[in-house]
């Protein structure tokens, strides 16, 4: 009797914008095509991509060394900072290790959360902040939000009043968020700059340096009411700076790419801003994503994970989940992510993207 081997479900979902799809159908996916890589906000979900990040940065992109824009908000920027500072293989491992062992507990004060976040960031960067400024291959672009009016304050009454106003305004139109915050695009000086077309948000273009890049990374991940705004960053306009994901959650920006925007993402959809999560109709602008190749975990892969999903910030305080159990499950999830990396490299080797690629 012949035994029929069951094929393992695909670990990845592959989606392409119109121009990316045309190019890959014609030429395959080549490393020299890739000139931009976005990284979304999303907390510990980012460490669930460790194996995919390592495959892309340590094995695929080195096939064609060239300067590339790495554009991240919040944990997306931290992922890229680790890769630049610690290396393409060690960087993702370091970020995962630090996040897994973060000593976060329910009821902690925001000053305590700020300290452990700063310690984590120091662990990611070590003494290699200069790499983020001068790296020959990677142009780190950090997205943050400059708070306006009452939203600058960390006092509970002012902050929660601002958040209520933001939620109400965003329900009418995402563009109304410009009354509460402005976009900041922060990057090194020495190379061509990442810029976008004007939109509803005033955008500040600021250059970071070795002395202030850690503050910009901290600001990009400073979630209101969880960690305080980062105020009066050196060599920048005075003000209070918060999480870049508030405006640019999944980086739905008009990328001026000449090739392929390779987007390793933790979900199969692109939500413009953090407050848009409650509106299913608010999805990426197809024109913005025309050159994007979105690579994300498949639903079958996610369901196979110990938690049935990627790590989430709520796991730190999830009822019935001890810290020891959380660490164990997160470690298992991170280890499983090698499947995604292996599958991506197999697709590159066989160049059979057209067999699995969907429209974005």
TrEMBL record:
The superkingdom listed in its UniProt entry is Bacteria
Question: InterPro entries of this UniProt entry?
Answer: Acyl_Trfase/lysoPLipase
Protein name, as recorded: Patatin-like phospholipase family protein
């Amino acid at each position: 009797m012949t035994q029929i081997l069951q094929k393992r479900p695909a670990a990845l979902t592959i989606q392409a914008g119109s121009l990316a799809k045309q190019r890959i159908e014609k030429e395959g996916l080549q490393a020299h095509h890739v000139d931009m890589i976005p990284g979304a906000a999303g907390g510990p979900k980012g460490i669930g991509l460790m194996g995919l990040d390592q495959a892309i940065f340590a094995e695929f992109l080195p096939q064609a060394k060239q300067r590339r824009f790495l554009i991240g908000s919040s944990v997306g920027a931290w992922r890229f900072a680790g890769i630049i500072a610690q290396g393409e293989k060690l960087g993702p491992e370091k970020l995962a290790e630090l996040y897994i062992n973060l000593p976060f507990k329910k009821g902690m004060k925001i000053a305590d959360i700020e300290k452990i976040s700063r310690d984590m960031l120091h662990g990611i960067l070590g003494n290699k902040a200069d790499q983020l400024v001068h790296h020959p291959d990677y142009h780190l672009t950090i997205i943050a939000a400059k708070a306006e009016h009452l939203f600058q304050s960390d006092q509970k009454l002012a902050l929660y009043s601002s958040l209520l106003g933001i939620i109400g305004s965003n329900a009418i139109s995402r563009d109304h968020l410009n009354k509460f915050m402005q976009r900041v695009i922060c990057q090194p000086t020495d190379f061509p700059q990442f810029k976008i077309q004007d939109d509803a948000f005033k955008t500040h273009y600021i250059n970071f340096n070795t002395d202030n890049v850690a503050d910009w990374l901290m600001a990009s991940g400073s979630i209101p009411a969880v960690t305080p705004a980062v105020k009066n960053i050196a060599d920048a306009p005075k003000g209070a700076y918060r999480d870049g994901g508030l405006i640019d959650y999944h980086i739905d920006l008009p990328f001026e790419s000449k090739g392929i925007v390779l987007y390793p993402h933790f979900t199969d959809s692109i939500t413009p801003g953090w407050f848009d999560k409650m509106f299913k109709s608010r999805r990426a602008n197809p024109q913005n994503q025309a050159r994007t190749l979105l690579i994300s975990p498949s639903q079958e892969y996610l369901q196979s994970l110990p938690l049935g999903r990627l790590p989430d910030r709520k796991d730190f305080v999830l009822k019935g989940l001890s810290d020891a159990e959380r660490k164990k499950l997160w470690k298992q999830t991170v280890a499983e992510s090698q499947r995604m990396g292996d599958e991506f490299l197999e697709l590159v080797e066989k160049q059979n993207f057209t067999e699995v690629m969907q429209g974005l």
